[in-house]
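Key result, reporting period 2: structure in, sequence out.
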């Protein structure tokens, strides 16, 4: 692991999406920086890709996105869309859920 590894999951998403297509895998999972997890699935060779993105939460990984991409969707577009999800639906803090104060 490099000392200069980015804290953002952007590069991990790109690497996972490209690797999935190049290998022709039916299933690919990757742990991303920041505790995110990306799972990709293709039912048929060069078919549509189903993506599930999970963010860390106090109770375990929480799915924040489920998407289906056409086989004709360019790889950079898939990566950008999934990266945008991590920015607009950030990981949940590892703090205890606040409780309401007792009423007097």
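The corresponding designed sequence is given below.
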């Amino acid at each position: 692991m490099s000392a200069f590894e980015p804290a953002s999951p952007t590069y991990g998403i790109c690497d996972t999406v490209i690797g999935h297509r190049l290998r022709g895998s039916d299933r690919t999972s990757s742990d991303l920086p920041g505790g995110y997890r990306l799972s990709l699935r293709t039912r048929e060779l060069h078919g549509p890709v189903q993506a599930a993105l999970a963010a860390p939460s106090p109770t375990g990984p929480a799915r924040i996105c489920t998407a289906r991409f056409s086989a004709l969707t360019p790889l950079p577009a898939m990566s950008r869309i999934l990266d945008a999800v991590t920015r607009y639906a950030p990981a949940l803090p590892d703090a205890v859920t606040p409780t309401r104060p007792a009423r007097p």
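DSSP finds two helices and four strands in the chain. The two ends are 53 Å apart (CA to CA). This case is discussed further under Risks and Mitigation.
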